[in-house]
């Protein structure tokens, strides 16, 4: 597995497993528990050591499924990330949320703990103090944020100016189709502002929705041409475009073993500079027209 690394010693697998919709969306769904647990186990066996989840996924049930799936594996080999929802960013609520996630995940620590989204009604200084506490108590190893614009990142950075526990990652929408306008929330200017800022400030980008829910797998002349040229699938081209960029990792979601294997085919090779530029400059909006 390829890794993205920072000078402070932080490193994260470039390709991870997303878990949104495993075990439910905004509510828990127990109907496919066995299938979902087995899918996570199979992913780990294939080499997906980075598992991404959140307390809000399936109203906490997704974390429970991840916990059941990972208990038979060597925990230090895994990189588990989860997120605290934006309504739990008060000091005590955040700490309690992290401890509840630990219980559901059946683990003693979280490798990377994200603030799922900024909350303008809660002072970021209070939130970051709680995150510092979690690191100091060895409940989490590293701090991350999600859906943060440059403005939100700068505010968080100012709140952290006296802390050694700096933000190491920002999870945002980003893929060949979704460049500067997110398809939900307040995500904007990702490619033109947020990503350059993060790259300049030692913050790794975790690109979510890397295949845009399958839209990028539709017929498209540029993708079709590159898939043939490299003897790769369109999913592999789209994922390689992401992880070939400086300090960008990604977490596609799948419970299908063949798709999991296919996605792993995005690592171990690189698009040429010419083809990276071609994809950078191609407009994929026609796929949703």
Largest beta-sheet details: 8 strands, parallel
> Which series of helices and strands comes N to C?
EEEHEHEHEHEHEHEHHEHH
Structural class: alpha/beta
Shape descriptor reads globular
Radius of gyration using CA atoms only: 18 Å
CATH superfamily: NADP-dependent oxidoreductase domain
Q: Would you count the extended β strands for me?
A: 10
> What gap, in angstroms, lies between the N and C termini?
36 Å
Task: Give the percentage of residues in beta strands.
Answer: 15-25%
Overall pLDDT, averaged? 96
Helix content, binned percent:
25-40%
Overall CATH architecture:
Alpha-Beta Barrel
CATH topology: TIM Barrel
Low-confidence stretches: none
What's the gist of this structure?
The protein is of the alpha/beta class and 289 residues long. Helices cover 38% and strands 16% of the residues.
Task: Give a verbal description of the structure.
The protein has a single domain, classed as Alpha-Beta Barrel (TIM Barrel), CATH 3.20.20.100. 38% of the residues lie in helices and 16% in strands. It is built from 10 helices and 10 strands. The strands form 2 sheets. It has an 8-stranded parallel β-sheet, covered by helices on one side. It has a two-stranded antiparallel sheet with strand order 1-2. α2 links the parallel β4 and β5 (79-84). The mean pLDDT is 96.
């Amino acid at each position: 597995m390829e890794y993205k690394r920072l000078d402070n010693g932080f490193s994260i697998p470039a390709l991870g497993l997303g878990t949104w919709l495993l075990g439910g969306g905004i509510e828990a769904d127990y109907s496919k528990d066995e299938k979902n647990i087995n899918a996570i186990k199979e992913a780990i066996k294939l080499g997906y050591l980075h598992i991404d989840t959140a307390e809000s996924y399936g109203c906490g049930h997704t974390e429970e499924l991840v916990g059941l799936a990972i208990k038979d594996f060597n925990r230090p080999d895994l990189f588990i990330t989860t997120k605290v929802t934006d309504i739990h960013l008060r000091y005590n609520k955040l700490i309690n949320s992290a401890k509840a996630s630990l219980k559901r995940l059946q683990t003693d620590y979280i490798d990377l703990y994200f603030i799922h989204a900024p909350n303008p009604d809660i002072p970021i200084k209070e939130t970051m103090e709680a995150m510092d506490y979690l690191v100091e108590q060895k409940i989490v190893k590293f701090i991350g944020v999600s859906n943060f614009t440059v403005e939100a990142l700068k505010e968080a950075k100012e709140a952290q100016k006296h802390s050694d526990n700096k933000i190491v990652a920002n999870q945002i929408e980003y893929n060949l189709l979704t460049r500067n306008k997110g398809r939900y929330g307040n995500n904007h200017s990702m490619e033109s502002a947020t990503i350059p800022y993060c790259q300049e400030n030692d913050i790794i980008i975790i690109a979510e929705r890397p295949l845009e829910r399958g839209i990028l797998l539709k017929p498209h002349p540029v993708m079709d041409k590159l898939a043939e040229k490299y003897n790769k699938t369109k999913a592999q081209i789209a994922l390689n475009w992401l992880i070939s960029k400086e300090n960008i990792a990604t977490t596609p979601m799948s419970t299908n073993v063949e798709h999991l294997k296919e996605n792993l085919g995005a690592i171990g090779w690189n698009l040429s500079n010419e083809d990276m530029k071609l994809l950078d400059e191609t407009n994929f909006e026609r796929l949703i027209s």
